[in-house]
Amino acid sequence: MSATTRVFVARLAGTPVFDPIGDQVGRVRDVVVLVRAKGPPRAVGLVVEVPGRRRIFLPLTRVTSIDSGQVITTGLVNIRRFEKRAMESLVLGELLDRTVRFKDGSGEATIEDLSISRQRTGDWLVDQLFVRRRHGQRGIGLRRRGETLVVPVDAVTGLATSAEEQGAARLLEAYEDLRPADLADALHELGDVRRLEVAAALDDERLADVLGELPEDDQVAILSALDSDRAADVLEAMQPDDAADLLHELPDEQAARLLELMEPEEAEDVRRLLAYAEDTAGGLMTTEPVILGPETPIATALAHIRRQDLPPALASMVFVVRPPLETPTGRFLGVAHFQRLLREPPHAAIGSVLDDDTEWLTPEAPIGRVTRLLAAYDLLALPVLDSQKRLLGAVSVDDVLDHILPDDWREQHDDEQLEEVPRG
């Protein structure tokens, strides 16, 4: 998708949604936006109706293309039934037919459609409204009543959230551009009540990113304050290894209940990680690195690496295996390093540029061996294999740092050093 992609939402209604191999997943029924007191509303996902008339939430971060007549996804779809969260609005269900007032004082209008536009940051913002002036009102230069026109979203008022939501809304606006680690620091400094209010107002994926950066006590408090279904959704949005670490800190009964509420495939990955000791390769690894077959074109591999939700350490290499491609995979063949992929023809297969002599770990390998191998070979990630040489997951350097630093490292600040770091 280009950075200037613009879509009028009403035209999306009924549009088929396909996975990467061309199978239809469902049809678009609505678009979910966060309407803020300041700044344009942000579109966060689609409501998709799947077979059985079940409506699910598809984050826009998992949409790779919105073209004429179709929506293409990454193939990762959570089939939990959609439930609207606090501060979310449905465009077709709530915003269309809403009355807004022109800021220039020329009267009121009714929203008949609105457009969302993809920014260079990857965010989708509501940028234009297609409105019809209310009968009996006439703006300067208008020739007839009830005329339709397209206006910038900032030309009207009336889309903002309700007054009782403004406290959390204003804080979210102030924190909107912060990186997850910086937002976690800001949340940690808030009082207990306000911290929970702001955390609850974050969308699932943003909250999942932030939880991974918070001290364990804050993680447990926030997750425990959410209703069980929402907590399960947030755990699903987390990297499996981060979700497993968090569940380790919860009472066994609560952890078991949340695992039961998670989608079976997501829960299975987390359960496998919970079976390993926390200070072993199995306990440290993620089950979701970039895994592809040897026949995959290099251009496709690079597209997978560019995923916004992929941590930088895991974007440093592609793990190449025989089918199946889900962990535990077929036989592990080797890794394709990002820099090597950049130097090869896009149409070549990644199987032709494999490093098949890379070091690997067993799931029982202690953290000391993990750190020694990462340091010795200047790697950002290592594969974890079972006795049959099947890929179970990968351990990245950031996972290791989280475990070798002091337990309270997130709460320790060197003020002088922090002042020198730009907040760009």
Automatic annotation (TrEMBL):
One of its GO terms (cellular component) is membrane. Transmembrane segments: none annotated. Residues 354-416 form the CBS domain. It comes from the Bacteria. PROSITE patterns: CBS (PS51371). Gene3D superfamilies: CBS-domain, MgtE N-terminal domain-like. GO terms for molecular function: magnesium ion transmembrane transporter activity. It holds the Pfam family CBS. Keywords: CBS domain. This is MgtE intracellular region. It comes from Isoptericola variabilis (strain 225).
